Amino acid sequence: MTDSLRVTPFNTCLVKSSPATRCARQGVPWRCPLSSRPRLLLVAPSEMTHSPAFDRALALAKAMNATLTLVAFVYLDGLQQLDLLDADRQAEIREAYLQRYRQWLEQEAEAMRGEGVEVTTEVKWDQPSLSALSGYVRSQHPDLLIKDAHQESALKRIFFTPLDWRLLCDSRAPIHLVTAQGMPIPRKVLACVDVLRDDVATRELNDRIIDQAARFATHCKCPLHLLGVYDWTALYLADIGIGKVPVSVSPSYDERKAKFLHLADKHALHKDNRHFIVGTPGKAIVEFVGQDVFDVLVIGTVTHRSLNKLLGSTTESLLYQPPCSLLVIKPVELPDFAQ
Questions:
Q1: pLDDT tens digits for 172-203?
Q2: How many Å apart are CA 272 and CA 277, to the nearest integer?
Q3: Residue 331's domain spans which residues?
């Protein structure tokens, strides 16, 4: 077994030191002798189509020397409505469709094996619901969950909660949502941190975002950039009594920028790769990603699974209309489901 097999999984908890970020700056892969081989899980589309997530999963598995599992949840909505067919005939139709999908997924897996990746496949007869997908993810304990991103219209956002949103709340593993833009292997990664809040949980999450982004960038052999957005509008509204901003938020631009630069220094990020801008976070991030053409945006969530609480308004807005592929990082300590 070579050293390249011993790459730190994405969901390894971080402590105060950040060797991965220093290696990312120097362009040297970071290896931990005690870590196991990373496990990637790709959720395949229910339609038999080769999507961008397949290419990204293959590229990452090769870069990380990771194992890869392809899982699909397939279901024929109209099958149960065929009342004229008896149960045996319905079972035959179901099995025929499953067999067809298994063959297609195996063809995809075989092409990946030809690239030197260890791949397993599994096809489940179930609707791609939160309970089905979450249960499977928890049973597999992947280091990274990969699936295609789906843009949602503002109208859809009003009337229902998409699966991607709910999965982000529920999954304990980092999630990589892949858009159609970009190359199979990312060429430029941007980590976005919260520069307004200064509580312990936010500081820990910021550290985790940068460290995980550094590992990702190191595997992809691409540069890592850091972005902080100073939202003066939120502070202004709070100052005149409109809206609610946590008491830990500081109105000082200079203080927030100083803390942002200190965070960048702590993780040894190159000075040319630090970006502190002013604006409304969601809009400013989208515009910045478009200007510099980033392939992956690394962001964090502020809550775990309670649907009564926001993932974070910025994360939520980026999820519905992602400007590029997203890598979503969860806090180290994940609370139980809120009642």
A1: 789 999 998 889 999 999 999 998 888 888 89
A2: 14
A3: 156-172+179-339
